[in-house]
Specification:
- It contains 8 helices and 3 strands; from the N terminus they run βααααααααββ.
- It is mainly α.
- The chain binds protoporphyrin IX containing FE.
Length: 243
Amino acid sequence: MKHTEYVYLTPMPVRIWHWLNAFGIVTLTITGINIRFPDVLNIFGTYKSAIVLHNTAGIVVSISYTLWLLYYMFVAGTLAKLYIPTMNDIKTGIIRQAFFYFFQYFKGGPNPHHGTPDNKFNPMQKAAYLVIMLVLLPLVIISGIILMYVAPLREIIMVIGGIKTLVSIHFLIACCFTAFLFVHIYLATLGHTPLAYFKPMWDGWEKVEHAHGDPHGDAHGSSHDKAPDNDHAVKSAASIGAA
Ligand code: HEM
């Protein structure tokens, strides 16, 4: 017999940020390809309208990123806890998680990590999200802002090595984002159902099934590493009217 529980993993501000950011980054990628390779892709009417849309999406992504950072640092206060890998994550966790994704997953083996509000991400996610959110996204935003104001920021551009270097940096980071996006979406479908990890990004709640008599195990090998701090973050299926 199974006992179903729902864990509140993703607060609303993070969900709003995530989908706005995803839409913004996809828009930036498509308009960016149009701007860089107009002979290959030209779908926005004029070259100028591709640039206007690219700049607008860039501003939306920059503002929503700033709000995301402020939220995690000062409201939730969980930025370091969630996003910085521990020594154990680095020494063994990343390898264990990669082993799961590359081998065990295909044999129906259990996922070694189980998200709680305090420890949402597996070691691979932590490392990837740390690089994406705290290194690459700030860099692409800063390089993009400088490219929007080339004349007034001429001196900064000279220090960086000239406009060509800046454009190359911006372009290479954008390529990293595109690569991340494919891997991110693929890995996000590897829950116990293809949409299991999408659910908490939509309504906040993740479904966890425990095998009867084993409060730490479930039908898919899922278990909590530790109980969440906040008791209200966990509800049984009956209490929220789900079967
Ligand atoms: C269409 C594009 C996207 C889809 C379908 C998507 C899907 C998802 C899903 C299902 C999750 C929850 C599972 C997990 O944590 O892996 C997630 C979380 C996350 N995604 Fe995405 N994503 C997209 C674009 C992006 C982009 C462009 C970024 C960053 C530049 C991003 C950064 C993140 C982060 C940081 C989290 C964890 C959020 C948190 O709980 O704090 N995603 N995404």
